[in-house]
């Protein structure tokens, strides 16, 4: 069968002593069959956690996982660890955070970090609510003494927090204590925790290690599927270390797309405004009927493609479809550009609606994408890639002066 042939192709590539990454990308682009159970290892390779040399895998993973433990020890600080006089500094106490002093208080940093943690905490509890996995207990014991979210002070009746999104818009987010308790008590044993707590810890550690980026809403939507794949690995040893492996793969992926999360870099070459401008130019050049219709209606790419691109389409499709789409995305050598080709394919899918030139209907459709056949979109993106490559070759031929 076709599926069995694809499974065999994956196994053939992975059986080599030195993995041919170009061949692996070709195989992954066609989708990693679920029955092969090879997606976790393929993603580790594509996201640069593992080197091509198989004999280096064990030592590489051991080194990275040990490094992650050291990160946890250094950056995940509990309020109990900041007790007065614990490091010989009797003057450093919580009041130091609001009292004038000659040196920064460690409590001041603790409370500032808690502001980041509070936003992460709110977001991870809302992660894919229709998918129960994140609220279920993890089989791995918590690697820190107390749950990270215990750092956050909450009022007794209800938690109401003013949060600020990427655009600086402020809003109230409320959730009752009963809702929190229901989620937090899922893992009842003292040293156990739910999967969302693991995701929370990874995001907080990433924010602490990347102060220039910190945490921005939406990162949780990218991390969630990554962690799910690694935590569901059929290799039990690998699944046990899903937290560390996810952290490094997430960090590798964010290195390519983090500029899109930093508002001050919007107009840089990799900033989101520049990326959206590239999408608009792509459409006007290769799909002019779509590009011109959007311009005529005054529909800015920000209205819909901002979310599509920054969240890697994780909010547009069901998790299995997102995972399949990411097989192809991760296999690309230029992932940001590949995002634009997928956007183009999505717009082509709803082209009849766009060409009706009804602003309200068009925006609603784009913000609630109706398609669910990601393979069709991948095929559409591939056709666009071929079209762009053909035009570039043709233009180069014309510029060579060989045409008489």
Mind sketching the topology for me?
Blueprint: H1 2-14, H2 21-29, H3 39-46, H4 57-75, H5 106-125, E1 158-164, E2 170-176, H6 177-184, H7 195-209, H8 219-231, H9 236-240, H10 242-257, H11 272-286, H12 288-297, H13 305-310, H14 319-331, H15 335-349, H16 351-355, H17 359-367, H18 374-399
Antiparallel strand pairs: 1-2
How would you describe this structure to a colleague?
- The protein has 404 residues and is mostly helical.
- Helix content is 56%, strand content 3%.
- The protein is built from 18 helices and two strands.
- The protein has helices at residues 2-14, 21-29, 39-46, 57-75, 106-125, 177-184, 195-209, 219-231, 236-240, 242-257, 272-286, 288-297, 305-310, 319-331, 335-349, 351-355, 359-367, 374-399, and strands at residues 158-164, 170-176.
- Strands 1-2 form a two-stranded antiparallel ribbon.
- A hairpin with a 5-residue loop joins β1 and β2 (170-176).
- α5 packs across α7, α7 packs across α10 (242-257) and α15 packs across α18 (374-399).
């Amino acid at each position: 069968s076709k599926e069995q042939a694809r499974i065999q192709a994956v196994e053939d590539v992975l059986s080599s002593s030195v993995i041919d990454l170009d061949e692996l990308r070709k195989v992954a682009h066609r989708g990693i069959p679920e029955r092969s159970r090879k997606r976790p290892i393929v993603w580790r390779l594509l996201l640069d956690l593992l080197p091509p040399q198989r004999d280096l895998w064990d030592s590489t993973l051991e080194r990275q996982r040990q490094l992650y433990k050291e990160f946890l020890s250094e950056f995940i600080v509990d309020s109990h660890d900041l007790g007065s006089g614990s490091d010989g500094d009797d003057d450093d106490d919580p009041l130091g955070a609001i009292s004038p002093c000659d040196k920064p208080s460690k409590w001041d940093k603790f409370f500032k970090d808690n502001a980041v943690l509070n936003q992460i905490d709110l977001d991870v509890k809302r992660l894919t609510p229709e998918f129960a996995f994140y609220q279920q207990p993890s089989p791995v014991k918590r690697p820190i003494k107390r749950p990270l979210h215990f750092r956050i002070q909450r009022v007794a009746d209800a938690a109401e927090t003013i949060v600020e999104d990427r655009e600086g818009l402020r809003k109230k987010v409320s959730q009752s204590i009963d809702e929190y308790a229901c989620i937090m008590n899922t893992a009842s044993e003292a040293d156990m925790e739910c999967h969302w707590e693991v995701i929370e810890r990874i995001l907080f550690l990433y924010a602490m290690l990347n102060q220039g980026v910190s945490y921005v809403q939406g990162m949780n939507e990218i991390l969630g599927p990554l962690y799910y794949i690694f935590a569901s690995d059929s290799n039990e040893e690998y699944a046990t270390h899903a937290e560390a492996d996810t952290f490094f793969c997430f960090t590798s992926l964010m290195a390519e797309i983090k500029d899109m999360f930093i508002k001050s870099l919007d107009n840089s070459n990799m900033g989101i405004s520049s990326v959206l401008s590239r999408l608009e130019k792509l459409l006007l050049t290769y799909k002019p009927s779509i590009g011109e219709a959007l311009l005529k209606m005054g529909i800015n790419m920000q209205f819909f493609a901002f979310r599509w691109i920054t969240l890697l389409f994780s909010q547009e499709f069901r998790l299995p479809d997102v995972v399949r789409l990411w097989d192809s995305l991760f296999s690309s050598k230029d992932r940001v550009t590949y995002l634009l080709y997928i956007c183009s394919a999505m717009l082509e899918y709803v082209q009849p609606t766009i060409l009706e030139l009804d602003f309200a209907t068009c925006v609603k459709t784009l913000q609630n994408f109706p398609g669910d056949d990601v393979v069709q979109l991948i095929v559409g993106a591939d056709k666009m890639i071929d079209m762009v490559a053909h035009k570039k070759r043709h233009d180069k031929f014309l510029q060579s002066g060989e045409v008489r």
